[in-house]
Amino acid sequence: MNLLQASGIRRTYGSLQVLKGIDLEVKKGEVVAIVGPSGAGKSTFLHILGTLDRPDEGQVLIEGVNVFTQKDKDLAKFRNEKIGFIFQFHNLLAEFTALENTCMPGYINGLGNEKEIISRGKELLEMLGLSGRMDHLPSQLSGGEQQRVAVARALLNKPSIVLADEPSGNLDSHNALDLHQLFFKLRDDFGQTFVIVTHNEELAEMADRRLVMQDGMMLP
Ligand SMILES: Nc1ncnc2c1ncn2[C@@H]1O[C@H](COP(=O)(O)OP(=O)(O)OP(=O)(O)O)[C@@H](O)[C@H]1O
């Protein structure tokens, strides 16, 4: 069974047809990269896969659940439990430490008690080489460190799938490579599944599949 299956996804903004019927199947443990020119609809598609936006037509199954048949409240719970997000700008909360930011998805959904959540957060930050940075605020971290905290936060609830939108777009080439290698390590060690929208060809070439979107369609 596919971990994620999207079929016939269409999305229109006003008179602009942004997605023109897109299909995608992703297996557990796959790293799929989506590339394509600016304005092709990549981010729009990723937002729909992440249930942050609803399509006009088409369906998305994640672990067999037809996600958009759920009401908004149930969908939000499903999203927090099953999907991890990494964005170009990490969106860490400035007034919270690295550990507090990492633990945030656990507090929102109440998965486990506070002690368990903190223990998982610490374990992730240690794994990502941030054991000495747990009590730092985002402003006290380098760009690469901030993005690794965002990765730890994305993994906190043990999501089925991680969706990343230009995750290394704001990093220098050294930190970008480190981050890309981290994704593949997480895949190899834990079977973590990723769909990554990127303009970084090096990352796209490393992926199990490199898909190209153009003008609202997936090229064959
Ligand atoms: N909320 C919105 N309202 C209106 N138009 C939108 C909205 N979101 C996206 N669009 C339009 O949809 C098209 C696709 O945008 P999208 O961000 O998905 O492209 P992209 O392939 O991710 O581009 P980039 O590589 O530059 O990030 C663009 O023309 C954009 O202006």
UniProtKB/TrEMBL annotation:
PROSITE patterns: ABC_TRANSPORTER_1 (PS00211), ABC_TRANSPORTER_2 (PS50893). InterPro entries: AAA+_ATPase, ABC_transporter-like_ATP-bd, ABC_transporter-like_CS, ABC_transpr_LolD-like, MacB-like_ATP-bd, P-loop_NTPase. GO terms for cellular component: membrane protein complex; plasma membrane. GO terms for molecular function: ATP binding; ATP hydrolysis activity; transmembrane transporter activity. Coiled coil: none annotated. Keywords: ATP-binding, Nucleotide-binding, Transport. Residues 4-219 form the ABC transporter domain. This is ABC transporter ATP-binding protein. Belongs to the ABC transporter superfamily. Macrolide exporter (TC 3.A.1.122) family. It comes from Dyadobacter pollutisoli. It comes from the Bacteria.
